[in-house]
Design goal:
Blueprint (H helix, E strand, L loop, with lengths): L1 H6 L3 H7 L18 H10 L5 H6 L24 H7 L1 E2 L7 E4 L5 E4 L5 E9 L3 H7 L3 H7 L2 E6 L7 E5 L18 E6 L16 E5 L3 E9 L4 E5 L8 E4 L3 E11 L1
Parallel strand pairs: 4-6
Antiparallel strand pairs: 1-2, 2-3, 3-4, 4-5, 6-7, 7-12, 8-9, 8-12, 9-10, 10-11
Length: 257
């Protein structure tokens, strides 16, 4: 259902194409498992869907795109060329590297060797109050905060923001843990997806609320509209936060430290 909404598909047609009925996606039936035949139908009908995301919830909904900026035209390995060009418009094709923007204003640098870097504003955790006051104003954000860059493998849709973490609540000497002072790249999770619950992720989430900013795992969505925020450091205890108090949630997709 998330993929259908993302692609702007008519849900009834989407379900029919998968050989299922709307009842399979309602009530307790939506929690049942699917078999390999269903996955085969899904992938053959929608070849752009990212199977890793389907199975694990990690990464983007669609497969990565390979860009070759040295070619006469951008070689976009998807069936959605026009949509992509609307999302990322060429800024100046005489520059090296080439510069593109997605529809949320995130800047991408495309190098001749195929390397892609995204430039985002950098929000230190201790400056979150200033960010909350101006997060809706792109001009103020650019004046208020410095920028940071991450190497990425494709041009991503969505809103990306960088953060500088403080504290060791997500550090427990594990391979996917994050120490204090790390630079974090987050992709915003749309509010329309919050009530679907949150998957277990590799690096956790950045949660911006009216009361603070936290880098945590979201381990439970409760019936009372609260989510449980948990740390990877056992010395930090989990706590609940009301969705009504949350301004933005970002899925952490990269870290640097």
């Amino acid at each position: 259902m998330q993929y259908a909404e993302y692609k702007g598909l008519v849900k009834e047609k989407f379900i029919e194409d998968l050989g299922m009925t709307y009842g399979n996606f309602k009530g307790k039936h939506k929690y049942t498992t699917v078999n390999s035949d269903f996955l085969d139908t899904l992938l053959s009908t929608y070849p752009d869907i990212n199977i890793e995301w389907v199975i694990t919830g990690e990464g983007d909904m669609e497969k990565n795109t390979d860009l070759h900026p040295s070619d006469t035209d951008l070689n976009i390995q998807t069936n959605d060329t026009n949509l992509f060009l609307n999302e990322a418009k060429l800024f100046d094709d005489s520059q090296e590297p080439e510069v593109l923007f997605n529809s949320n204003g995130n800047k991408y640098y495309i190098y001749s060797d195929g390397t892609i870097r995204i430039e985002v504003i950098k929000v230190p955790f201790n400056a979150y109050a200033s960010y909350v006051e101006s997060y809706h104003d792109e001009v103020v954000l650019k004046e208020e905060f410095s920028t940071m860059a991450f190497k990425v493998d494709h041009i991503g849709r969505g809103n990306y923001v960088g953060f500088e973490s403080i504290g060791d609540s997500m550090w427990n000497n594990g391979g996917f843990d994050t120490p204090s002072g790390a630079d974090i790249l987050g992709r915003e999770v749309g509010k329309h997806l919050w009530l679907n619950g949150f998957h277990k992720t590799r690096y956790g989430f950045v949660i911006i609320s009216k009361k603070g900013i936290w880098h945590k795992d979201i381990t439970e969505l409760k019936d009372n509209g609260k989510i449980t925020l948990s740390s990877r450091n056992p010395l930090s205890k989990p706590f609940d936060c009301s969705l009504n108090d949350i301004i933005q949630i970002f899925h952490v997709i990269k870290r640097s430290f």
